[in-house]
Structures are given as C-alpha cells and as structure tokens.
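Record Mitochondrial chaperone BCS1, 503 aa.
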Amino acid sequence: MGSEWSLIGSFTATVMIAYTVFDKFIPTHIRSYVQIYAHKLIGFLSPYIQITFPEFSGERLKHSELFTAIQTYLAQNSSQRARKLKAEPAAESNSPFLLSMDDNEEITEIFNGVKLWWGSHKSMIKTQSFSFYPTSDEKRFYTLTFHKRHRDLVSNTYIPHVLEQGKSLKLKNRQLKLFTNNSYTGWGGYRKSRWSHVVFEHPARFETLAMEKTAKEEIIEDLLTFKNGKEYYDKIGKAWKRGYLLYGPPGTGKSTMIAAMANFMYYDVYDLELTAVKDNTQLRTLLIETTSKSIIVIEDIDCSLDLTGKRVVKKEKEKSGEVKDPVKKAEEEDNKESKVTLSGLLNCIDGIWSGCAGERIIIFTTNYVEKLDPALIRSGRMDKKIELSYCCYEAFKVLAKNYLDVDYHGLFSVVEGLLKETKMTPADVAENMMPKSKRDDVETCLKKLIESLKKAKKKAEEEEIRLKEEKEKEQEKLAEAKRDEKAGKEVKENGFSIDMGKG
Ligand SMILES: Nc1ncnc2c1ncn2[C@@H]1O[C@H](COP(=O)(O)OP(=O)(O)OP(=O)(O)O)[C@@H](O)[C@H]1O
Ligand SMILES: [Mg+2]
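=>
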C-alpha cells in the first residue's frame, strides 16, 4: 500500500513539473500549437460534441438574442437543479431579479430520452487600454454538450425548442412599456432613440371597462382572433396588422379601452404624437422603429391632421412674461413648416407595415367621427370601428361593481330609469358615484349620482326648451323677413302700400 502511494506521489510530482516546464519555458506559439493538436486529439477520441453560445456576437458585438433566450430557458429550468445560482437585476421583467446558473456551473437535462449537458462559463479578456483603472472584459457563454449520435435531434428539434420556450417565457415575464415619440429636433445622432419609454402600468382591464356586455365580448373575440391569426394572415397574403377606430364623446372610455387592450394582448403601447413629427419621412422612420406585439395609438386624429392634407400645429400655451429661448423659437418656427399629410400617414400604414414582421395594432381615436376623411377609415385600414357612447344601465352596473363593490341595490332601478332619460358619460357617472370620504356608503354614493342625473336631466330639458325657443324665434324672424320682402315688392309694383297694422 505504501509503495502505491509513493508511486502516485511521484507521478503527480512529475506531471506538475512537466506542466511548469511547459508553461514557463516553452514559447507561446509552440504552446498554442500543442494545445490545438491536443484539442484535436481529444475531439477525435471523444464521442461528444460541444456547441458554444456566446453572449455577444456579430461584427458589432450585438447582444445575442440566442443567448438571452437560452438564459431565460435555463433560468426556468436550472433554478430547480443547479446548486450554484446567480441573482441578477432583471431589466424589463416583472420580477425584480432573475435567477440563473452561476459561472462554471453545469446541469444535465433529459430531452426525448437523450442526455444533454448545459454549462455556464465566463472568460476574462484584459483590455489594452491606458487607464489608471485597468478593466477587464467579461465574456460569458453557454455550452451545450451531447453525444454525436444525437446531432440531428439537437440541432433540428432541441435547440429550436429551447429558443421558442425562452422567447415565450421572456414575453410572459416582460414588463409592458409605454413609448412616446421624441420631438424630431431632439433626435440627435444615429444612436439616439426616436422613442422614449416608461413602464406601462395602467390598471384598466376589460372586466372593469363599462360598456355593453355583447359589444365587449365582440371586441375580445376580435382581438383573440387577430392574436392567433398568424397562419391565416400568411395564407391570405396580408400583413399581420389590424386597425381600430374608437370614437365617441369625451369621457366615454376610449383611452381606457386602449389600456385594457394593451393589458389583454400584452402588447407595448406607442403613443404617437403627430404634432411632434416633422414630416412623412420622419413618420415612416418612427413607425419602422416600433416593435412587434405593439399597439400604435394616434389620439384625436381629427386634431392632429388637417384632412385637406395640412397638419394643424397645436397651440402651446405661452406663459405670460416668459422670455422665449431663441433656439426654442427656431424649433417652433420649424415646427410650423413641418407637415405630416393624410396621404403620408396612409402610405405609412399601408406600405411600411406590410414589410415589417410581427403583429401590430393601430388605433385612432376621435370625438368627431363625421369629420374624418373616408379614406382614413375605409375597411382594410380601420378594420373595426368601435363606438363608445354615453353610459347605459349595463355599463353603470360595471362601474358600481368597480367603485362601490356592489352587484345590486334598491336604488339601481331609479338610476336605470334616469339613464334612459338623460345622457351622462361613464367618466361623469364614475366621478359622481365615487366615495369622497370614509363616511360615504353605497346608498349615499348612489343618491349623489341620482341627484346629479336629475340635475343633468333638468339641464338638458332646459337646454332643449332654450333651443326650441331659439329656433322658433329664428323661424319668426325668417317669416318676418319674407313678409317685408313681399311688401317691398308690392310697393315697387303698385306705387303704394297698404299699412294693415295701423287703423
Ligand atoms: N367605459 C368606461 N369604463 C370605465 N371607466 C371609464 C369609462 N369611460 C370613462 N371612464 C373613466 O373616466 C376617465 C376618463 O376616460 P377616458 O380618458 O378613457 O375617456 P376618453 O374617451 O379617452 O376621453 P377623451 O375623448 O377626452 O380622450 C377614465 O379615467 C376612467 O376612469
Ligand atoms: Mg382619451
């Protein structure tokens, strides 16, 4: 036994000396040759294949989507199996951190009965920069090892499976974003983004949206058909996009519905402010930069576009006494000259999107549907027109559930009757019904609403009477003018007039 130990000891010592000699005294280029041939020999003898997935790839060292998808996939799978995990802040994700395999950790996975090994590695490359604080670049990569007889299965089935899973998990975990376009003068260099974003956290849901149940269900059905319609759109040769026009008086829930749609579809929202876009070319650039699975919104389309082709620039409220910055003034001057035309917008919607992969929804909102150019809302551009109108009883019940947490109350029938007789927007109903203090219970809130509805009804009746009187007066004036005209004619023809009024 003793002799065996001494044999092992001397062998180990020999290996260590040989390694030191190799490392210290053999020139680098010979060493690299030896390493290359050693790898070749191992590759020749070993039945295993290894694939490397680096974090950065391509000429410009772009962050690899492949790497991110694998990272997400492994984070889901490895967090149960790996012993050494790493917690990192998760950008653009719902959870505050992401658990992934730590460096130099390995896990095994069985896929269709085949054993595979995933490894997480890191290599350090020292940068040759002249700095007081020497930095080193970290290059992370994953390796996938498997037996060479499973090569086809891995490349044709397993890797696509990992990517698909990784991407869908990332989509599920990501945070929604609300983008707004930067004013064109601030676009700056090529690297500056045309869109700025914040996290989109609007609480609106279809369940809390007050409108008729059937209309709501129809919209949900329409959205679902669109979402699952990739094959269908491919088959009919149409770009995977859908246009909605939301119209109705202010406060009827158009913006709320857009938020509900975004939450339901899990799409980002691009709020496109046309008045900040210089011309059609910039509009095109902005639209190209939108990503798949997004809703592009143009609110109050009638105010942003003059339908004769010119753009209306929103008047900015100038603070009194404010001295104008010359640069700002020049920008504004420029703004006045800039224009996005209706045809430019239509061309963008029809043309560019057809070339952009992925699904997109475009929504226009307006308070005055009758003002819109038929070209803008024709079918194919605006596939669905949704009217959001004054509060009906069904919508009121949703609001009562949202704001007061009640399904029924004795006063509901009074509200129902009044809602049939008067027009009130859901925004006003909600405002009138909302508890304003802790003492406000359901009954108090409903009574407040009834009071407001009665007032609104009275006001509407008075307005109706006023309008009727005005109309009658106008008709009287018209009739009088006609009588005068007739009398004038008679004087001309007969040379005298008969004054019927005086005795
Ligand atoms: N149908 C609705 N369901 C639930 N809440 C609503 C509804 N309509 C309005 N509201 C409430 O009223 C507020 C204003 O509604 P919203 O901004 O969606 O109206 P809008 O139609 O976009 O108005 P505008 O035409 O002025 O832009 C919302 O914050 C929401 O709380
Ligand atoms: Mg709105």
